[in-house]
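worker-3 :: picked AraC family ligand binding domain-containing protein
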Amino acid sequence: MKFFDSTKFKRSIHYYWYISTILLYLSDMKRYVQYQSFVIEEFEANTWKHALHKHNHYELIYIKQGDGLHFIQNKSTLYCRGSLFLLGPEDDHYFDIRNTTRFIYVKFTDLHLYRGVQADHLYLQKLEYLIKSRETHLSVFLLREEGQLLIQNVFNTFSLIQHQVTVYEEVIRLQLFSIAVILQRNMPELRVTANRSQDMQALFCYIHKHIYCPAKLQAVEIAHHFNRTPDYIGPYFKRHVGITLRDYIRQYRNQLIKKRIESGSYRLKEIAAEFGLVDESHVLKLLRSENEGLV
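worker-3 :: tokens ->
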């Protein structure tokens, strides 16, 4: 005969209450939605007045003055004058301000970066690499003195044109490309560490950087870069990500191609050349294989 276990019952109730509370919290988390191409905001605060939130856009946050803690995905990082953060759409965050802080925010959606781009593809690729590599979203950028000065000058420019964003959209876009070039030096393409999550970030960064060069994405090349064997890289990636390395590369590349097609600024011939594909028919074949319905 089985007797009623009140202790076990209470634990179950507590467990389900905990899970439901977490799910309710996540569903109620505020999401800021932006429809403009770019938004620049400069403001000063003694206390942080925004609830924990996510966005539908990317945010570059520059600390013009002040200090405190920045919490991203429950991970805290000290900030001070000159600190720079990059947040992705799914990064929840808030600031714990210790001394009065002056912020400069540059908010943008990645789709707008592809519209009317006349600059060399290389700059767009650097920015794609930056914003798509999650490692950049979880900590502050550590810059050398010359990098700090360059970033400061860029954000001074943003400050000057913050009320004329529509007029200076192309200037803003080009300044974002400049930031990507400066910050790319901080990306963890190869880290010797026992922390496998950091190893995965380095692997993602490598893929994102070389997505335009198929030869660099062969298992043999990736394994050589990370001082591993080809037989190790594939299973290692699938074990940590849940899909094969080949599928991830294909899906990520198609995502970037879709952005270019949606912008209307790229011809299929240009896309094929940029991504090292044979011709326009190869681009169409890749997209059809995903059954995206875009072409």
